[in-house]
Amino acid sequence: MNPLKVDKVYKQYGDKTAVNGISFEVAEGEIYGLLGANGAGKTTTMRMVLGLIYPDGGSIQYNGKPYSTDLLRNLGYLPEERGLYPKVKVSDQVIYLAKLRGMSQRDAVTNLKRWLDRFNVPEYYNKKVEELSKGNQQKIQFIASVIHNPKIVIMDEAFSGLDPVNVELLKSTVKELRDSGSSILFSTHRMEHVEELCRNITILHKSNPVLQGNLKSIKKQFPRERILLGTEGDVQGLETIAGVTKVVRHENGYALFISNESAGRPVLELAMAQTGINKFEVLEPTLNEIFIKTVGDNHE
Amino acid sequence: MNNSFWTVVGFTVANKVKGKAFLITTLIIALVICIGANLPYLIDKFSGESEPTKIGYLDNGSNGGTDADIIAMLQSYLAGQKEPELEIVAIADAGSADANESALKQAIIDEKIEGYMEFAKSDSSSFPAVTFKSEELMDMSTTQSLSAALQSVKMETVLKDSNMTAEQKKLLFEPVEIDSVQISTIEGAGSIGQGKSKSEQAMDMGLVYVILTLLFMAIMITGQLIASEITAEKSSRVMEVLITSVSPLKGMFGKIFGMFLVGLAQIIIFVAVMVGSLLLPHNADMMSELNINLADIDPLLVIYAVIFYLAGYFLYATMFAAVGSIVSRTEDLGQALMPITMLSFAGYYICLFGGIANPNAMFVKVTSYIPFFSPYVMLVRLGLEDPPLWQVWASILILLVTIGIVGWFAAKIYRVGVLMYGKRPSLKELRKAMRAYKV
Predict the structure, then answer these.
(1) B436 vs A144: CB contact, 8 Å cut-off?
(2) Mutate which: A9, A19, A52, vs B, most B CBs within 10 A
(3) What does pLDDT average to over chain A?
(4) What's the ipTM?
(5) Domains in chain A, ordered, with CATH?
(6) Contact B224/B320 with Cβ under 8 angstroms?
(7) Taking the CA of residue B190 as centre, how many other CA atoms within 13 Å lie in the half-sphere pointing to its CB?
(8) Is the pTM of this model over 0.80?
(9) Which of B247, B214, B83 is nearest to A75 (CA)?
(10) Which segments of chain B have a pLDDT < 70?
(11) Which CATH number fits domain B52-169: 3.40.50, 3.40.190, 1.10.10, 3.40.720?
């Protein structure tokens, strides 16, 4: 039985449907990606999972059981908009939040110190949050959401506003969390993070789940439409090949857009006849492209 | 999971007590109270009570007549007093009217006298009109003492020729004393079946003032703090983490209770400072002079005061919390709190301008049952009249039921309010949100 099971959940605000029948399951040790443009219903879905809002239809089950307040100590939440007490010491507020979720004072202190060490910032223990930079505040927020070793973690835009070094740091931490068996529901606008972290995804568009499933099989559903060609010299006549829709000249070669995967072979043959080849690759569609295709196309 | 309630309480208290702002305000108010309680003593000290005010007159003794007689009698009257407030100083006649005036003025400049009196010319049978001239505007206390002294002299003059005995004169001069005792005609809520003495009444009156003001301050200050803390939590978005960690109900009442403890500690400090200052030995004279005796405090009144303080606090605190939860930005809070502030002010003013002067008035009786006013108004009735027991408990019961309803409703508003950002929602929007959130 999966730790988190969302089944045909439906939510309406007034006459506006916020989430229209979303279903997914998050397994133990899995990061599940929830994607969608702004206002697509991600935050509403997450809030329903957190028990902040009750769904109008469908059900959410946690280890096979419905929501109850006892669940709170097994839930971790990293909200989209960061929220900490600006004028309270890091230790005071993180320990407070940990205690609210049922931790003992001693465990909370030990865990907090361990996490601060993990992020190389043990000196923040006695600092006020307002004294920290935005990126470092985010680390504290992250610690606050996982300090009580939650079984289910909900992360809304986990890495927004971080520099690349800190993104890597938090990403590896999220992976560790996953490997230790937590089920993570994860939303982001950064597709490369999803490709790196998530096994399964749901793309929401205007409250509807439009694309769902295993990331690899989703990618297979989409045709390969791009060829990366690295050459020694110039190649003439690439645009004349049937199936090639667009040719872009790069410093060390070409990027070709094709309408048909069978155009790959004649492209390579033409290039080989004219110059040396350093690289030839028919690219898988990136999640970014898939996302824009799914969500962007039916934008009115 | 009851632990989390106490965790919220502990965090609220710790944060407030650790904050510099709280410590500083508490200290300042305590200092003000301390100074206020000692003010009569300090004024006394600085005004130098032993020094009588010196009043000059023109010594035209050579002319003889009424003036000299009056002066002589005035002197003997003042000499007869234990602590004379006046001293009569003779200024020598300089000959002409102009020279006399400048001589008198010079005496004021030289600080030999503070002012001088002039006697209007009159025929010998009537008492002359007296003008007191001084640089000070409306020197009430001096004119009063002077008037009293002259009154006495006048009586003496008139009675001089009558055949009254010294006893009769003494009796005539003695002021009439009125002693009022508040009695109860029915079995009242107070402890008093046998009536309250004047000192007890004064004590009650003072006590009602003090309790009323403390209650009002406690409700306003703590209430606003609760509201602003909740709004701050909301605007800094800690709220989202909080409500996923602890149920909103526990979060809200934990905060209210935590603030209650802080407010209570503050009040205890203030009362201790006040009582402590009043009990200082140098204030003992003052106290007995003003007829204040702390032992006269009616313990039952204090118990009722505590009950109404608790009820009033929790009634208003839940409303403050609810309003705090629907406001997104601290800047908008003051305006949103206005209706509650007005309600509290209204209750306080009903007492201040109506209830204390006339605790038996119909509107005072009516408002002593209306829950938002009753904590103030019923307290005044308890202190100053003797309402029947059932009325007091009916008022308390209504108050408790209202607290239940308002608390329940406030919790619902809080539950949806904390998740609503942006423009302050209207009642309709709130109702819609409540239905949507199924709370």
Answers:
(1) no
(2) A52
(3) 87
(4) 0.78
(5) 4-219 (3.40.50.300), 223-284 (3.30.70)
(6) yes
(7) 26
(8) no
(9) B247
(10) 1-2, 47-51, 60-67, 121-126, 138-139, 179-200, 286, 289-294, 296, 422-424, 436-439
(11) 3.40.190
